Amino acid sequence: MADFVPPPLWPEIGLEPVPSPEDGLMAACRPFVAAPAHNQALGFPGELVEDWETRAVARLGELLAGNRALRVYLDACVGCGACADKCHFFLGTGDANNMPVARQNLLRAVYCRHFTPAGRLLGPLAGAGRLDRARLDSWYGYFHQCSQCRRCSVFCPMGIDTAELSMAAREIMNSIGLGQKYCNEIIGKVYAIGNNLGLPPPALADTLEGLEEDVRDESGHDVRFPLDVRGAEVLLVTPSADFFAEPHVDGLIGYAKVFHQAGLSWTLSSYASEAANFGLFIGSVEQMRKIALRIRAAALDLGVKRIVFGECGHAWRVAHAFLEELAGPFDFLDPRYPRPQHIAEITADLIRTGGIRLDPDANAGMVVTLHDSCNVARASRMGDEPGGQFTLPREIVRAAVPRFVEMHPDTTHDRTFCCGGGGGLLTDDLIELRIKGARPRMQALKQVVEQDGVTHLCALCAICKSQFTKVLPAYGFDREMMVSLHQLVGQAIRLGTSSL
Amino acid sequence: MAAELAMAAILVVAASALLVGLTLRIVLYARTPAPLPLATTPAPTGRVGAALRVGREIVLFPSLWGADKPLWLAAMLFHLGLALVLARHLRYVIEIPPAWVVALQGPGQLGGILMMAGLVLLGLRRTLIRRVRKISRPTDYGWLLLLLLIGGSGLAMTYRWHTDIIGLKAFLAGLWRLDLVPLPGDPALIAHMVLAAALIALLPVSKLLHGFALVFSPSRASPDSTRLGERRHG
């Protein structure tokens, strides 16, 4: 990562110019290709198959027949360019193929060539083109420069979601043996061990015991971190980064304190010790289902009544929107509660009803701003009302800290910018992309740091937390600025005391 | 009557291509499974709300408003102008036009100008803004040119080379009865009709389909209604 500099930050949002698109600036930026063993563990061909072009076109045809979104989105683009300056990766890199419509057109060209009369007749005049080696290379490069954050879909007058197209392209590449190492290796670990980090059950048990000791020493309270406890009320499914990464683990401590104080019996599962579902990132419903079924199996095995998800953006998308379709029916759970729930819903409700008390003075000196994670903001909901995914986390932050500050409205709520590491890009072989892609968020952060004295950046997504911890220093910020939502809760919660 | 026969054939082929093509596309969209809900959130939690969301997008372009206000203006000028022009044209195909069609004749003329203004702005944008130029395909310019020619020939007949509108109406009325009536031979009229027929015929197999595609666009049309369970948290 030595041969590039992070793009400069301007004093205020809106001053920075939109880059003039140039070809090929990021052409060399591509993640490591998966080894045969990584692909085969998921049932994909180990290496690029001989007749890859034919098989890729055939796979595209199958996906078109099974996914209305793909078909409609490939047809509907008028090339108006409304999306062109909305992607953090374009804003951060200036590479022409990182304009969402240009990225889509890499796939649309092949669709036109093989599935539309205009493309068959007019060829390049209609933007059609074969999936030759050069195009396959640009697919691999640029469909791994999309974090599937859906920001473009907010602004597209037809609602075209580039995420769907990049997922389809990755699925097609996997089907011909061109997988991405990071995602495929991780999914393999979930199948073999149970979580993305490859943390085996005994190590997980050790970690949780250690946390119990830490919390006892720090707070004097006997807060439990139960694992595989049959008959618990709640199964907590959380990203495995919560088990030891910073500041994720402080979030896990926060969940445990909330459950403790609310008197809810809960457990983690060593079999479903992962909320993340990278099947989404590689566009494979099959893999997504296999991973989701582990959660179902764990819930049945432990006999829980409720499933609650920890802080993980795309996991909450899969849970909120897809879980019933992928792994349902969840009719064995308590029908009085949403299936599944987000930990923030539980915490916000306990704060409202007085079930837990937060003391903002415990976080004295903190001025906190909130990063809306893309999959929470644009692909899910919390609570009963649309937009609850924005209000609930804010209610919690406001209750937990002395001062809360919003970033620029063009960078929050459903207009939030991706952290730059989502969608299966959180790997060091893409560090240049990650740093450049973080620029729009860093720009907004710089403004509130300088104008409002913001000291901490809060997020409720494991990928956001890892990504920011890594890229904050590249923009001159302290990595310790990054906090988990439930870290703030854990620090502010009054344990043991009567609620009045 | 060779010219009349050719024009009749062109119109019948174009109308059939539109009807058949559009029906096939819509059936294809409707039949293609959408197993996972893909709404861009915040989204309405019910079907009615989702339908209203799509309706608003079709009429007011709120997403585009949020994205790019000059582009919204150009797009609105063009589409609103086109809608007025199409309403005005009903006079030529309905023997005794209803009062609202008659009332829209004046606004319809204005619509022609709005539509052309919108097209010129869209064309300027496509050629002058580098990032829009970068993403433009030859056919994108082709559609603009085709629409400009259709609009231009129409405006020319409105303001400069008036055509025999009674004769045109008689020709179109004759088509319904499978009767060939002489067609006024003005070049502007012939060009206008042939180009419009080409546009109509190609609509179902081109990006001009986008309005119909929007109805099926999962990010807008699907409700956020999948989560089960009573509305109780705690």
Give your account of this protein's structure.
The complex is a heterodimer of chains A (500) and B (234). Chain A has helices at residues 36-40, 52-66, 68-76, 88-93, 100-115, 117-122, 133-142, 151-155, 162-175, 181-192, 201-219, 248-262, 285-302, 313-327, 343-353, 374-379, 388-400, 431-437, 439-452, 462-471, 485-492; strands at 234-237, 266-267, 306-309, 341-342, 367-370, 403-405, 456-459, 482-484. Chain A is mainly α and 500 residues long. Chain A has 2 domains: 48-176, Fumarate Reductase Iron-sulfur Protein, Chain B, domain 2 (Orthogonal Bundle), CATH 1.10.1060; 193-492, no CATH class. In chain A, the strands form 2 sheets. A 4-stranded parallel β-sheet of chain A has the order 2-1-3-4. Chain A has a 4-stranded parallel β-sheet with strand order 6-5-7-8, with helices on both faces. The radius of gyration of chain A is 23 Å and the shape is globular. The model of chain A has no long low-confidence stretch (mean pLDDT 96). By secondary structure, chain B is mainly alpha-helical. Chain B has one domain (43-221): Up-down Bundle (Fumarate Reductase Cytochrome B subunit), CATH 1.20.950. The chains are: A mainly alpha (500), B mainly alpha (234). Chains A and B meet through helix 2, helix 3, helix 5, helix 6 and helix 8 of A and helix 1, helix 3, helix 7, helix 8 and helix 11 of B. Chain A: Keywords: 4Fe-4S, Electron transport, Iron, Iron-sulfur, Metal-binding, Transport. Chain A: Pfam families: Fer4_8. Chain A: This is Fe-S oxidoreductase. Chain A: It comes from Magnetospirillum fulvum. Chain A: Residues 68-87 form the 4Fe-4S ferredoxin-type domain.
